[in-house]
Write a structure and sequence with these properties.
The complex is a heterotrimer of chains A (331), B (309) and C (319). Chain A has 331 residues and is α/β, with parallel strands linked by helices. Chain A contains 11 helices and 12 strands. An 8-stranded mixed β-sheet of chain A has the order 6-7-8-3-9-10-12-11, with helices on both faces. In chain A, strands 2-1-4-5 form a 4-stranded antiparallel β-sheet, covered by helices on one side. Chain B starts with a helix and ends in a 6-residue tail after the last helix. Chain C is 78% helix and 0% strand. In chain C, helix 5 packs antiparallel against helix 6, helix 6 crosses helix 8 and helix 10 packs antiparallel against helix 12. The chains are: A alpha/beta (331), B mainly alpha (309), C mainly alpha (319). Chains in contact: A-B, A-C, B-C. Chains B and C meet through helix 6, helix 7, helix 11, helix 13 and helix 14 of B and helix 1, helix 6, helix 7, helix 10 and helix 11 of C.
């Protein structure tokens, strides 16, 4: 295994079983999270990005399971197969929150409204370290300060509803970073925030990455965010990764028709008012009624009969790979 | 350790089965209203429908299934145990108990359902209009309903009984007067949320008058919870009638109702030694109300889109 | 917190006034000479018409309605509730005499049913779908379907007559005063009353817990690596409690209703059975005043519970 990979996901399949139906939310996904680097997972709603994150954290709901595949955490003490750990067993719980942390989309609902922020941060520290109560309190204050929250000694005792939207997200990041995790998974952390606050949060995350060498897995549907923050990019569609590479590879030389279509559907600052913005034709298929073979084929202008079989992963170069029978040439 | 392993396997097996069915294409897309299907698949609700129907039909077709007159006294045959002659025996005045139960059902169900419907009419009528219109009228009605609901219902009911006197018609009126609050509040709440919908503003822009908007256009959207409420209110009123009649303060004792039949149990001798006088009546009340509760719960579940499968 | 309290008071006081107004209206409208329950019956019986007229004037019965109302209200606030139509005993004495019995019964029932209701409801939610959950749910359904007095009758049948464990009713045996002596009499009514309340609380507690378990912050708590018990109880249960307590406040009127019936079934000498007796004998003053008193109590206790809930929910506390 390469030296700088901290989590490697191989052929992950996660299925949901509700209403007596089976939804193959994640259907064979492989990627690596590298130390100190930001991996952006992009895709439309419902493509399985959040489920992938939940699978890594073993936070899946009751009516679902990791069907297949390997999730390996390359810790200091050796490789740990996360997919084989018991969901709420001591081993997994030791990893969760201290080695791998997660922050969520809406901090208002993600934080418990009846406990103070300090309490909720302290909790994380309490269950992963042996620090005493006063030490935990100091640590919490330090964290809030680091995240740019003013008057942390006072804020510690306040409740989530007393914070503003941006501050809440900072508080949640503080909570997630409390034990200095090696990996921070951020599931659409700014979707519920104003654009200006968004910028601040991302700046903060970048700083943390630098300071603590934290690997970040950032889930988003916003290509603009990808341009800003990503080192590596993974594009997902209906439970599969359709393109995988560095940000340079994927954004400058998009190979999969879906990636290309995504990029063409957002306005780019500087291109002027005559730039062509094309929405993607059609809509995502019903997960219970999927097309055969490549899931994007019904919407793809380049599809033909070979697309009735799911394409294998093909390499464009040693960082860039794509799953398509008709990969695009560079624009 | 082994315990959790075994449990995982059971859930996992279920998953495996679903996966196989899915992969081999055995899943058919069912047609029909999702709500109705949900209701039918709820076994308790179905059981409830059966129970309620049986009792209801027995009461409606009482003359067909029972040859005795519930009011006929026959003191020579009093206190007979259940037998082929009298299915549930006779009471202390020689009346056939089965007949009393079956005919009594008519009155009890009438009181229950009638009161539920009447309070629904009142509550919905007021709630729909004031909820939509708002303003002073709304505030007054809200405070009024709060006051009515602050009275423990039994106490208010008995207070009105004291003033108005007993009687079947009075009872229904009293029940309606004391019971409209809940459904009023609920309808009003629905109206408050529907009021913000765009189509309402559009209707207003078209110049439709308030009554039309409130009753004809908004109300149909709130029907679901109202139906649930009526169902559960029926159960509540039947219980109240039973309690009142048991105390001798409900429907006058000469008319057979389920509560009146159980009234006899106040006397400890009858309670102990002549169980057939009151136990069957008690069972019928309980079963009927249980059935209604099953149905009401089922309705509530099926109307709720957020239920997990 | 202070502003919240004041706001609730501002709502409570007009309600109480309006309530008193309605009650007085009821008193005015009931048949019978108003004087008859404002002075003791002995006097009423022995007076001649001229004296009666004088008394009427003295009592201000010829004054306009609002003044009479105000005077009556003043009297009530000072503790003068009027007199019983039959016995002539001051109503205040009757009420306060019987109050401890009712409090004993209802307080006990509330405490027991709240504890058990929340306990069973939470367990039900945690073990959703299991046999235990289904059994409890069914038991709960039975609890709200079987009429309360039937529960009482069955309890008497079982415990008094078949098992001969407990006495059939009443509150004390003559001559015995201590709490331990009262206990055997207290057990059945309290348990029966609790049984009917537990069902409702259990169902609501279960629903509230299930709702809390689905909320986002539960996932966040798990993502911190917290053990399941802490996630469920420290996070889930704590949040699920708020609506349950609100519900109990809402249910207070029903609790009192149940007490009335249970008191009657077990011949428990409380306000409830007194009320029933008064209804039966058309003793209007008692009926009115007890109705007033109990509704007043309900409104007031709801107010207190409101404040308590606010304490539990920081979103309100700090407004």
């Amino acid at each position: 295994m390469k030296d700088d990979v901290i989590i490697s996901v191989k052929d992950l399949k996660t299925f949901f079983y509700t209403n007596n139906r089976c939804n193959k939310a994640v259907n064979g996904v492989s990627f690596d999270i590298k130390k100190g680097k930001t991996l952006c997972v992009v895709g439309e709603s419902g493509c399985g990005k959040s489920v992938t994150a939940s699978s890594i954290m073993q936070l899946l709901p009751k009516l679902s399971r990791i069907e297949n595949g390997k999730i390996t955490y390359h810790s200091n003490e050796g490789d740990i197969r996360i997919d084989q750990l018991k969901k709420n067993g001591a081993e997994m719980r030791a990893i969760r929150g201290s080695d791998i942390s997660m922050i969520f989309q809406d901090p208002m609902t993600a934080l418990n409204p009846v406990y103070s922020i300090g309490f909720q941060i302290s909790e994380n520290i309490q269950y992963h370290t042996r620090l005493k109560k006063s030490e935990r309190k100091d640590q919490s204050i330090k964290l809030l300060k680091e995240m740019g929250i003013p008057l942390p000694e006072q804020r510690i005792n306040e409740y989530p509803h007393q914070y503003s939207g941006g501050m809440r997200q900072r508080a949640m990041i503080a909570m997630a970073m409390a034990c200095n995790p090696k990996v921070l998974i951020a599931d659409e952390p700014t979707t519920a925030l104003d654009v200006t606050i968004q910028a601040q949060i991302f700046e903060l995350m970048d700083e943390l990455k630098e300071k603590h060498d934290t690997a970040i897995m950032l889930i988003t549907h916003d290509m603009g965010v990808v341009t800003e923050l990503a080192d590596d990019v993974v594009v997902m569609y209906m439970g599969n990764i359709v393109e995988n590479g560095t940000v340079d590879d994927v954004l400058r030389k998009p190979s999969h028709p879906y990636t290309k279509a995504l990029l063409e559907s957002i306005p780019v600052l500087g291109r002027g008012k005559n730039q062509v913005i094309e929405p993607i034709k059609g809509s995502t298929p019903d997960p219970y009624n999927r097309p055969k073979g490549c899931q994007f084929a019904p919407r793809c202008p380049y599809a033909d009969s070979s697309c009735l079989v799911m394409p294998d992963e093909s390499s464009i170069n040693n960082t860039h790979s794509v799953r398509c029978w008709h990969p695009m040439e560079a624009v | 350790m082994k315990d959790t392993e075994k449990k995982k396997t059971r859930l996992e097996k279920k998953f495996d089965k679903i996966l196989i069915r899915e992969d081999t294409g055995l899943i058919k897309n069912k047609k029909g209203s999702r709500a109705f299907r949900k209701l039918m698949s709820n076994r308790l609700a179905v059981a409830g429908i059966i129970i309620v129907s049986v009792i209801l039909l027995a009461s409606i077709f009482a003359p067909l299934i029972c040859r005795y007159d519930p009011l006929k006294l026959d003191l020579r045959n009093k206190l007979q145990k259940p037998s082929m002659e009298h299915l549930i025996g006779t009471d202390q005045l020689g009346r056939d108990i089965f007949a009393r139960i079956v005919y009594g059902g008519r009155v009890s169900i009438l009181v229950g359902l009638g009161s539920a419907l009447a309070s629904a009419v009142v509550g919905v009528a007021i709630g729909a209009y004031t909820g939509y219109k708002g303003g002073l009228l709304d505030k007054i009605m809200l405070r009024l309903s709060e006051l009515v609901m602050a009275f423990p219902q039994i106490i208010l009911v008995l207070l009105l009984v004291t003033i108005m006197g007993q009687g079947l018609r009075n009872l229904i009126i009293i029940f309606t007067l004391t019971g409209w609050g809940g459904i009023y509040r609920m309808t009003r709440a629905q109206m408050l949320s529907l009021r913000e919908e765009e189509y309402v503003q559009a209707l207003r822009a078209f110049g439709l008058n308030n009554f039309s908007i409130a009753y004809k256009h908004m109300l149909p959207n709130a029907v679901g919870p109202i139906v649930v409420n009526i169902t559960l209110s029926t159960a509540m009123f039947i219980l109240y009638e039973a309690a009142l009649s048991f105390l001798g303060l409900g429907v006058p004792l000469n008319i057979a109702t389920w509560g009146n039949i159980v009234n006899i149990a106040q006397d400890l001798r009858y309670l102990q030694f002549f169980w057939w006088l009151w136990v069957p009546g008690a069972i019928v009340i309980s079963l009927f109300v249980l059935g209604i509760n099953f149905i009401g719960d089922g309705l509530r579940d099926s109307a709720d889109p957020m239920q997990q499968g | 917190m202070l502003t919240y309290t004041l706001r609730r008071l501002l709502i409570l006081i007009p309600m109480l006034l309006f309530l008193s107004f309605l009650i007085y209206l009821g008193l005015e409208l009931t048949p019978g000479d108003a004087v008859s329950y404002m002075i003791s019956p002995e006097r009423y019986a022995t007076m001649d018409p001229a004296e009666l007229e004088a008394v009427r004037e003295a009592l201000g019965l010829d004054d306009p309605f609002l003044i009479r109302y105000a005077k009556w209200l003043g009297g009530v606030l000072k503790g003068d509730f009027g007199y019983s139509l039959q016995s002539g005993v001051p109503i205040r004495d009757i009420v306060f005499d019987r109050l401890p019995a009712t409090l004993e019964l209802s307080a006990g029932a509330i405490i027991i049913s709240t504890i058990f209701g929340i306990f069973f409801g939470t367990i039900s939610a945690l073990k959703r779908g299991s046999i235990g959950d289904n059994a409890l749910t069914l038991a709960g359904m039975l609890g709200v379907s079987v009429p309360r007095f039937i529960f009482g009758l069955l309890a008497i049948l079982l415990f008094t007559f078949h098992l001969k464990w407990l006495p059939v009713g009443g509150r004390l045996r003559p001559g015995y005063e201590g709490f331990m002596d009262r206990l055997p009499h207290l057990i059945m009514p309290t348990l029966v009353l609790s049984a009917t309340l537990v069902a409702g609380i259990m169902r609501y507690s279960r629903a509230s817990m299930l709702d809390a378990m689905n909320r986002d912050f539960m996932k966040t708590a798990r993502s911190k690596g917290l053990p399941e018990w802490r996630v469920n109880f420290v996070h889930g249960l704590r949040v699920s409690l708020i609506p349950v307590i609100v519900l109990i406040a809402f249910r207070l009127p029903i609790l009192l209703g149940g007490t009335v019936i249970i008191e009657q079934v077990f011949q428990w000498p409380g306000i409830g059975s007194e009320f029933i007796g008064a209804v039966r004998s058309r003793n209007y003053p008692i009926v009115m005043m007890i109705a007033f008193f109990t509704t007043f109590a309900v409104l007031f206790v709801s107010f207190l519970i409101d404040l308590f809930t606010a304490l539990l929910d920081p979103r309100v506390k700090l407004d």
